[in-house]
User: What shape does this take?
Amino acid sequence: MTDNGAVTLPYRTGTEDIFKFIRILGRGKSFDQLKTMGFTGKNFVGTVLALRELGLADSDTEKLTDEGRRLSLSDNDTVKADIIRQQMFKYSPYANLLEARLHQGEESVTKLEWFETWWAQAGIGTSPNNRSEGALTFADLLGTVGLGTFVRGRRGHASRIEWAPEAFALIEGWLYSSEVGSEGSDETGPEITDKAGRPGTVGPRFIETPGVNGRENSEQKGIGTSKEPMTSDEDSNYYVLSLPLGGGRAAYVRVPNQISQREKERLLGMLDLMLEAQENQAKAQHDEFMPAAE
Assistant: This one.
């Protein structure tokens, strides 16, 4: 993050630099020592940022996380790629972009410009240059996890990702499955339960919502589902969270009855990014119509 709250995308680094940095850091070297081991200034900063954002190292303590240690100890390329993949899909600017790309259809090629534009519209990246360099790092990582091939632009052709034939099926599976481990793990997060502790399929739950003009009636005192009836069969698999904000306002989120821990984390990350993007857009519109200071 930067002082203005914008997300700084990992940049000027790639899989080779990340693996090298992790390997050396795993031997007990400090960040200062790493600076003398083949990393240029911005390349060093970009690699440290990538490790932090992907949850592989703590830039404050200069220590590897559990995932970083697993990566430093493995000599198996498949295992290393799987660790990188898991961390990429935990990182909201990557996971949410891939979800958006999934909904665009299964065209075999995507220009890196599309990544930059999506991030810009979502308020992600500190500058056009950060998004441009961030797209190069992202493309390199996509190749590492087997989703496609990064092709640098030449002779009038734009830099692009040529997706692997199975890429979109893999993206969909990794985004929406509840598996969280590596090497074929089937571990799932906890399911939502009702008040008696019974698992998930309990039909719509009713959570109280604020009354008219901010006044709560005798049955409306907090978080719950909307009192509006859900009529379709499909809707019986969902409930609506009402989150009172004060001043007669509330936020509403429609959630499946069954949701894993991983899905919960992604939902919270997406809400944070969407709210941040809305705030950035509102600020930009405000600044556009404000008279310039003399």
